[in-house]
Amino acid sequence: MIIHFSNQELTYTGQELRPHFLFSHFDLKGSGICAFIGPCHVKTEHLVDWEDRKQGDFIKAKLMLHFLSEFFCMSLKEAVLLQRLFIAKIAEKLNFSKSSSHMIIRSGNDLFINERKLSVSIVTSSPVSQLLHIGVNLDPEGAPVSAIGLFELGLSISQLKERFIPEILEDFAKEFEGASFACTKVRPVI
Questions:
Q1: What are phi and psi of 2, to 5 degrees?
Q2: Which of 6, 34, 101, 175 has its Cβ near the most Cβ atoms within 10 Å?
Q3: What ranges do the domains of the chain cover?
Q4: Global pTM?
């Protein structure tokens, strides 16, 4: 599992959720995850969730922490399970953080604090891979729903860059590699 944090600010529009974006934009080859900070503005026509698209929804926030992943040689269901594991790891990290006294609740692939939405997330398939985007609000200004961001919880950009982002990327990579290793060490039952 390749992990990378880019200091380049990038607006997430939904069009980045495509095969080989990590390779073409960040030179990451193979299954991996890249984190970056930037605004979010996904227009209705770029949503991949059919329910949201049919309702004319959109996604917008002044600033988000984005995680963009591409996984090769796996099914859509496996990618959805990885999405939920990653969301759970983010909630776990924030709930045990000394910088926040708020309880983050995970519901499916979303995170909430007191019914205010903290994150957005989607998984989809491409012809060659499974694609994942997770956006965690930093400043949710412009969001079409009641939302909260990490700045309101007291986290700063420097705290995110120095500790939170590297730790969450490392934790997820360890989970992924640990699951892969677990598949290799069991005795088959006949």
A1: -85, 130
A2: 34
A3: 2-184
A4: 0.95
